[in-house]
Amino acid sequence: MAKRSLLIAVDGPAASGKGTIAKALARHYDLPHMDTGLLYRAVALALWRFGGDAGNEFEALRAVEGVHQIDPDDEELRTETVGKLASRVSAYPAVRAALLDRQRLFAAQKGGAVLDGRDIGTVIAPDATAKLFVTASPEVRAERRLKEILARGVTAHFEDVLADIRSRDERDKGRDAAPLVQADDADLLDTSDLGVEEAIAAAIALVDKRIS
Ligand code: CDP
Prior knowledge:
By secondary structure, the chain is of the alpha/beta class. It has helices spanning 18-29, 37-49, 57-65, 80-89, 93-107, 120-124, 138-151, 158-174, 196-211, and strands at residues 6-11, 33-35, 112-117, 130-135, 187-190. The chain has a five-stranded parallel β-sheet, sandwiched between helices. It binds cytidine-5'-diphosphate. Residues 14-15, 19, 36-37, 40-41, 83, 86-87, 90, 117-119, 168, 172 line the site of cytidine-5'-diphosphate (CDP).
């Protein structure tokens, strides 16, 4: 019997655990996974490398043209500087439009896929079989992000990381183009009090409920 197509959208704010959950869902359901944040991060990194101005939509759009193959192991993609820059370039409608096809094509694969980001359930895959909106309190997210930064051997302070998380939330939620918002038909998953395995189990349970 042919495998049923299963498209899963995972959205949420910075350091909510959406990436970990999306990866685990992809493994569990044997689906390909796309971390769409990497696309915006790659644009930000390209812009930064050619010394472009993030305040200029045309220069940000030029940076999209410089993004062909993305190396997910490129450590520079994961830095906080690039994350912040990504949040700025991703507010430009032209940048979002230029990255749309890649994401929609990935979502349209036979058999399905898992995509995580900010606008998967609302813009990229509004017809997804299951949609999760993963969140956690800003303090818990700042604590997680701080651990990741320290693990990379970089010095950071909780208060600064928390301030960054808050300003990124504000920008991602407040922009006109595809703002971060829970889709009407998405299931909310608050991971504030959940360990990694508990969060993954809760996510699988929510998806299973949507499938059945
Ligand atoms: O994991 P973290 O939230 O720090 O970063 P990310 O998911 O890699 O996304 C980096 C930035 O890209 C976010 O702050 C968003 O502004 C933007 N983004 C977006 O606008 N739409 C997406 N589908 C994914 C990311």
